[in-house]
Structure formats: C-alpha cells, structure tokens
Automatic annotation (TrEMBL):
Pfam families: TctA. The chain crosses the membrane at residues 20-48, 60-81, 108-131, 143-162, 168-185, 197-219, 257-276, 353-377, 389-407, 469-489. Keywords: Membrane, Transmembrane, Transmembrane helix. The keyword Transmembrane applies. This is Tripartite tricarboxylate transporter permease.
Length: 499
C-alpha cells in the first residue's frame, strides 16, 4: 500500500468519529488500569458490547486503545499505593513505590508513562514490519499446521502459568466445556448436562466476564472497603529531560525488545516480560544494590517491557489467530464478533483494516501519554481514594449488561454467574484461569482443524510429523514439555534441599 493511501486513512481517522472512540477507549483503559481491582481486561470486556453497532475499524481501534491505556495505567496504583494496578506492573512496585515515599511520586509516574510510550512505539515498529511477513508464511498453513500451532499454544500456556499439572487439568476442562453445544461438522447437539442454558453451547465472552470480572468482585468483597493512604506527590520538574532519556536509551531499547519478543510467544504475556526486563536491567546496572530502593532504571525496565508486550501479542493474534494472553484472547472474540477472522487472509483481504489498526494503535499511544502527563497526574490520587463499596456495584451492573448484550439472552447472564463462581474457586484453590480462556476461545477451532486433518489424511498421523511447518511445532511442543519437566524437577530438588 502506497504512502498516499496510508496518509488518506490517517486523515480519515483523525477527522471522523473514530478518533473520539480511540480517545474514549484510551482514557477508560487508563482509568481502569489505575484503579485497584479494575484492569485492562475489564475495560475491554465492558467496551466490547458497545462495539457491535460500530464499523469494524472503529470498534477494534477502541478496544486496542483500552488495552494500551489499561496496561499503561497500571503504573499509577503501583507507584502511589505499592499495589500493582495490573499483573504486568508487579516489578513497577519495587522501585516506583519507594520513589513515591521519597516524595518523587510525580517523577515516577512521568518516567513510567515515558517508558510506556517508548515501549509501545518500538513494539509497534515490529508489529508493522513482522506481522505481514509472518502472515505470508502462515498462508502455507493447512488444517494440519493449525492443529499443531494451537496444540503448541495450549501446552505453552499450561507450562507457563504456574503449576503445570493444574494448568493442564484446567486446559482439559476448558476443552471439554468448548465441546458443549453443536458438533461443527454434523450439527449434532452435545449437551451432557441437559440444561437449557447450555443448549447453544458456552458463549466465550460471558464466560470470560465471569472468570475475570465477577470472580474479582467476589474476591474484592472479602477484602473489605477500607481506603488506602496515598503519599503526597509533587508535580514539579517531572518531565524527563533529554539527557536522562539518552542516559537510559539502552535500557529502553533492551526492555522494548524483551517485551516484544515475549509478547509474540503465545500464552506468556506481560508478567514474565516484566520480570525478565527488570532482571536484565539490574544485571546491566552499575548499582544493582539500589534496585528495590527507588532506582529509576528498574521502573523504566518494568513499564517499557509491559507495554512492548501489547504489539508483540498482536503479531500472533493478527497473523495466526492465536491470542498471547487473556486480553488478546478477548480481542480475538471482538474480531470474530465483527465478522473478521484473524490470520493470513486478513492481511490479504482486508489491507485497509490492518493499516487502520496500525494508525489507531499509534494514535492511542500518543493519547495515553498526553492524558497521563496532564490530567492523569492530578486526578488519579483522588480517584484512588474512592471506596470499593461504590466501585464494585457499578462494575457488577456493567458486567451483567455486557453479558446480556452479547446475544440478548438471559442464559448468558447465568453463564457469567457460573463462571464467576468458577473463577472465584480457581482463585481460592490457586488454579490459573488463562488456560480455560484460551481453550474456550480456540477449542472449537482446534477440534475443527484436528478432525478435518484426520479426514484429509484418512486417519493417519504421519503427515503431522512429515510436513516441515507442522514438524517445527511438534519439535517446539516437545521442547516445551521437556523444559517444563526439567523446571519442575529442579524446583522440587530446591524445595527438598530447603526442607
């Protein structure tokens, strides 16, 4: 696509209602990321029903803007109250909160926002340059390759979300739940429970609202409604100087590359990138002993990496239809609702939509930074003083409305409630929820491709091991399993020595 066409799409976005949707999504995402208990996932889930009446470009742009805003907003709670606003901001607490207690809260917020800006833009460059090439390779995929890609994603998620056996069990349960409904090949009804609410199958979005939102409401209700004391912050001299940016450019670049690379891998997400980037910054520092006590480089590494994950996650999502974390899993649902199937054909058949998405991503990043550095600095400390007893009922009402608006079925509300209870029990029993989300969204696709593959090969498994791309993913899956076993045995040995 030529530059003139790209510029024309840019002008169309900034002069139409699309820019308002991007701004709204960004601001809402930042607010939800900044408030404890409210995450980027929740912001996207709440906005999802409102995208039905929009054109696909505007709807998806608003969701991605909320994604960017939600991850960026996590720095606020991390710095001001020492509690990660999002799971991707865990290591932000290590140096951000000590800076706030030293009276440098405003400076810490500005550094975090700048890291989010740079990480997002660097990863956007790789999204623009790598995603089309990956999509071109994916054009060679048959149902056999897609089966192995999805299987690799299932194993990767199960192995990188805590206890492997628990994650594997959750994945199997998720696959079983995904089979409820109608057979994709012969339309036979499959409803082992015989309940009316499951007659049409499990709708993924209400289930995700239950797992991520309703369960969180239950958890937060247990914690009481007390306010948290917020340190006083100064807003003087908070903008990073060019000299400071130049001194930390290797940290920005390294953290951006780490976040992008980890984001591309299915099922890993921003939390791992957060830790890896922080660890590498500490190892590269001349003063590693100051990390955890208010070191600026630690804050930069954390916030740069978790935002770089966003565009990294979008690469496999757009090119292969494989979500990298729970947020991109919801984006996959949003694309499917708009009648768009992520994959190589999306680049081939919808080039203007792809360019629109890239430009919207850029505009959302700029909007996030401007909002954080102006209004956000003054408003967030007051917002964090709100009691949860005012926030949680609002969240619950919006969740019910969101679940119902998916298909205007009361059954979807019950599905939301059931999965809210499941999510609460998973939290209590320390079971991960991401594997069940991935299997709910990709289970039907996995079944369709697997059964189609077996039909094409007349029941033979040999082509799964002889076709080059399929064999690559077989090897990657085996390596992942071997790595998981090795890590598990090593952890048990360390536990035995400690005991």
């Amino acid at each position: 696509m030529d530059i003139q066409t790209v510029f024309g799409i840019f002008l169309e976005i900034v002069t139409s209602s699309a820019i308002l949707y991007i701004l709204a999504g960004t601001v809402l995402g930042v607010i939800f990321g900044a408030l404890p208990g409210l995450t980027a996932t929740l912001a996207i889930v709440i906005l999802l029903p409102f995208t039905y009446g929009m054109d696909p470009s505007s709807g998806i742009a608003m969701l991605i803007a909320a994604y960017i805003g939600g991850i960026s907003g996590g720095v606020v709670a991390s710095v001001l109250i020492g509690m990660p606003g999002t799971p991707s901001s865990i290591t932000t607490v290590y140096d951000g909160y000590p800076m706030a207690k030293q009276g440098l809260g405003g400076k810490a917020l500005a550094i975090g926002a700048t890291g989010s800006l740079i990480g997002s833009l660097v990863s956007l460059f790789f999204l623009v340059t790598l995603a089309p090439q990956l999509a071109a390779v994916a054009l060679r995929f048959s149902p056999i390759e897609y089966t192995m890609v999805i299987l690799f994603a299932f194993i990767t998620v199960a192995g990188l979300t805590g206890n492997f056996l628990k994650s594997l069990l959750v994945s199997i349960v998720g696959l079983g739940i995904a089979l409820i409904g109608f057979d994709p090949l012969n339309s036979t009804e499959r409803n082992p429970f015989g309940l009316e609410i499951f007659a049409g199958g499990i709708t993924p979005i209400p289930a995700m609202i239950g797992l991520f939102v309703v369960s969180k409401v239950f958890i937060e209700l247990e914690g009481g409604t007390q306010n948290t004391i917020i340190p006083k912050i100064s807003l003087k001299n908070i903008y990073p100087k060019f000299k400071e940016l130049r001194a930390s450019w290797t940290n920005y670049l390294r953290s951006s590359l780490i976040g992008t690379a980890i984001g591309i891998l299915p099922g890993i997400g921003g939390t791992l990138a957060n830790f890896v980037s922080y660890d590498q910054a500490k190892k590269a520092s001349k003063e590693p002993e100051t990390f955890g006590k208010g070191n600026v480089d630690g804050l930069i590494a954390s916030e740069t990496a978790n935002n770089a994950v966003i565009a990294g996650n979008l690469i496999p999502l757009l090119a292969l239809g494989i979500p990298g974390d729970s947020v991109s899993a919801i984006l996959l649902g949003g694309l499917q609702i708009q009648g768009l199937q992520p994959g190589p054909l999306l680049f081939q058949n919808q080039p203007e939509f792809i360019v629109n998405l890239f430009i919207s991503f850029f505009l959302a990043v700029i909007a996030m930074y401007v909002f954080m550095m102006t209004i956000g600095m003054r408003v967030f400390p007051k917002m964090l003083a709100f009691k949860k007893m005012y926030l949680l009922p609002f969240v619950l009402v919006m969740s019910i409305a969101g679940a119902y608006n998916i298909g205007y079925r009361v059954e979807d509300i019950w599905i939301m409630v059931i999965f809210g209870i499941i999510g609460y029990l998973f939290h209590k029993l320390d079971f991960p929820t991401l594997p069940i989300v991935i299997t709910l969204l990709l289970g039907a696709t996995f079944e369709m491709n697997l059964r189609t593959s077996l039909i094409l090969t007349e029941g033979s498994l040999v082509p799964f091991f002889t076709r080059p791309i399929s064999l690559i993913f077989v090897v990657l899956t085996l390596i992942t399993i071997a790595f998981i076993i090795r890590s598990t045995l090593k952890e048990k040995r360390l536990q035995n020595k400690a005991s």
